[in-house]
Amino acid sequence: MNAMLRLQYFPDLWKISEIIMIYKAGKPANEKTSYRPISLLPTISKLFEKILLDRIMPYLVERKIIPDHQFGFRRQHGTIEQVHRVCEYIRSTLEQKEYCSAAFLDVQQAFDRVWHKGLLCKIKENLPHTLFTILKSYLTDRLSYVRESEECSTLLEIKAGVPQGSILGPILYVVYTADLPVTPGTMLATFADDRAILACHSNPDVASSKLQEALNRIHSWLERWRIKASAAKSVHVTFTLRTGNCPSVTLGNNTLPQSNCVRYLGIHLDQRLTWRQHINAKKEEISLKHNNLYWMLSRNSKLSLDNKLLIYKTVIKPIWMYGIQLWGSASDSNINILQRQENKILRTMANVPWFVRNSELHEHLRIGTVKDEIRSAAVTYRKKLTIHPNELARQLTINKYTVRLKRHHIMEHIH
After folding, report:
1. What is the mean pLDDT of residues 37-49?
2. What PROSITE patterns does its record include (predicted)?
3. Which of 107, 65, 108, 69 is nearest to 190 (CA)?
4. pLDDT at residue 357 is higher than 70
5. What's phi and psi for 173, nearest 5 deg?
């Protein structure tokens, strides 16, 4: 490995990836779209990539190559902080009784279609020549083959994309998309290949006009760097407390479909940010998972209560815990939807009689209520934001406007 760094050469044998096909349950077995390809790389190759990444990151940090609005594949950056940025922007719009015109873009096969020449051009501009040379050797002349049982296909050349299943692939994609244009008067939120662009104004026409200007610049950038975004799978949402929606916007020559709700990084955002649709979606997901595990969690199950609780805490509870730092600001009526769901599951697992109070049940099982979890998550989340390395995340702890709406804010639970 020291010789590789000195010679700036990546061995050809380490650049061959083995692809296995994972069948998607319920799909036709004779169609190629029914299988999910998984790329396997040599373990020693990934070990060297880890070493190389440790040498690349200081340059990326020192030269501020990765923009602050990019929260993907960065240490101490998560999806919750990025969704929180979007929610704060929307909440500010609702407080001012304005219109927020937002576009959530879907990029097709983002990691598989990275243009190698374009990526190498950006690496050469931003990193030292020694790193550029070995990364060029790392990206070029890569091969792959498909293995099914004992049969293997011929070797096929990989002409585009960052290596799947690699250590360097995600950070190389972030470098490739680091110069995504930011338009004044709009907010840009990116997490890997997920992009959200928001613009607000008291006039819905002006809000969409500002958003359209940003989309035009992004579309030109996408075409220049050979990245394809699907307008049909993208979503345009108007967040407002007022009547009516913002005018439609386009990406290229295609109009983005409008919707009253969008799923962004696993969290459902409705027009008025009430969290009702997100909580209902989680309720259905919990019910489905509980039904699948009912044979182990039912009253007649021979499994011990401790093991039942272990299954609940590791499989079911994380479903509704995700994003609690954000949807914890929902109204009591919405939060009680999940509380009733949890009470029902716990009563079934513990096989308690009907006259036992839910409060006694939670105390006996040593499981906090949903509101207890919200308060605990709020305290931990606040501490994390105050020492966050990204200035955009630290600004989330500052109240920049007068609260007019009769709604909770997640930070209020700290007090």
Report:
1. 94
2. RT_POL
3. 69
4. yes
5. -65, -40
Q: Return d(Cα 393, Cα 383) in angstroms, integer.
A: 12
For the chain, what is the mean pLDDT? Answer: 92
Cα separation, 182 vs 199, in Å, equals: 12
pLDDT band, very low/low/confident/very high, at 110 (cuts 50, 70, 90): confident
In DSSP notation, 105-166 reads EEETTTGGG--HHHHHHHHHHHS-HHHHHHHHHHHTTEEEEEEETTEE---EEE-SSPPTT-
Dist CA 8 CA 19 (whole Å): 27
Q: At what angle do helices 332-350 and 370-386 cross, to 10 degrees?
A: 120
- Which of 105, 182, 114, 177 lies closest to 142, judged by CA? 114
CB-CB contact of 194 with 264 (8 Å): yes
Q: Which residues pair with 143 in a beta bridge?
A: 16, 157
Report the half-sphere exposure of 135 (CA within 13 A, side-chain side).
Answer: 29
| ∠ CA 108-226-37, rounded to 5° | 40
DSSP state of 316: I
| pLDDT surpassing 80 at residue 282 | yes
Positive or negative: CA dihedral 252, 255, 260, 264: negative
- Confidence at 390, pLDDT banded by 50, 70, 90: very high
pLDDT of residue 414: 46
**What string of DSSP letters covers 25-67?**
TTS-TTSGGGEEEEEE--HHHHHHHHHHHHHHHHHHHHTT-S-
Cβ contact 258:141 at 8 Å: no
Q: Tokens 């499994």 — which residue?
A: 303
Q: Determine the distance from the C-alpha atom of residue 265 to the mean position of all C-alpha atoms in its chain, rounded to a whole number.
A: 4
Q: What is the pLDDT of residues 320-335, one digit of tens each?
A: 999 999 999 999 999 9
| pTM for the predicted model, two decimal places | 0.90
Q: Rounded CA gap, 200 and 207, in Å?
A: 5
The answer to whether the beta carbons of residues 167 and 50 sit under 8 Å apart is: yes
Count of CB atoms situated within 10 Å of the CB of 407: 16
